[in-house]
């Protein structure tokens, strides 16, 4: 599949691998790598949809906060709260015992994994969804904009964080052109 990726899309995947603190690349790493890109279609779409400049820093902070909570989405945190489980309290207790960021999955501070970093199930779903988006848009290659669109379609922390910053599938589709954002997302999901 990677042979169909544009130079920008490959750079995002490589950037996600570099962003990964642990052995596994997740969807947050893909979004962080997209935020690092400049001069690409996804970069343009992020800026036009409201996550440019200071918005990018705000997205990074929101991702870091979600990672601090073991990568749980707001929906997952709310579901646990419905069962009487206070995620913030658990995080506070774990960090009190083991230090700040203990639930972030980053491993020991200052120590990086030098081996191969695979992609977790959700990151693989994003890559597959990017292919579906490209096919639905009748694009020959998978670009970083397709990765961004995939992140806005699939549920999880990146989609929540992006939506909180005004970056939705519909807004990105509008910026990039190509029909109604809802139809493409529904056809691809």
Automatic annotation (TrEMBL):
InterPro entries: Clp_N_dom_sf, Clp_R_N. Residues 119-176 form the Clp R domain. Keywords: Hydrolase, Protease. GO terms for molecular function: peptidase activity. GO terms for biological process: proteolysis. It comes from the Bacteria. It holds the Pfam family Clp_N. This is Clp protease N-terminal domain-containing protein. It comes from Streptomyces parvulus. The lineage of its organism: Bacteria, Bacillati, Actinomycetota, Actinomycetes, Kitasatosporales.
């Amino acid at each position: 599949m990677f042979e169909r990726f544009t130079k920008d899309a490959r750079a995002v995947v490589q950037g996600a691998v570099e962003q990964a603190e642990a052995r596994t690349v997740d969807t947050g790493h893909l979004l962080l790598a997209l935020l690092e890109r400049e001069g690409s279609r996804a970069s343009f779409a992020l800026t036009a949809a409201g996550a440019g400049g200071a918005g990018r820093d705000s997205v990074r902070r929101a991702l870091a906060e979600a990672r601090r909570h073991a990568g749980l989405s707001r929906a997952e945190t709310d579901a646990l709260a419905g069962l009487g489980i206070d995620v913030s309290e658990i995080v506070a207790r774990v960090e009190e015992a083991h230090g700040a960021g203990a639930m972030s999955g980053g491993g020991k501070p200052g120590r990086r994994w030098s081996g191969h970093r695979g992609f977790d199930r959700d990151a693989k779903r994003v890559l597959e969804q990017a292919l579906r988006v490209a096919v639905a848009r009748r694009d020959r290659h998978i670009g970083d904009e397709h990765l961004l669109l995939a992140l806005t379609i699939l549920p999880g922390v990146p989609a929540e964080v992006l939506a909180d910053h005004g970056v939705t599938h519909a807004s990105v589709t509008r910026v990039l052109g190509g029909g109604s954002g809802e139809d493409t997302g529904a056809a691809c999901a």
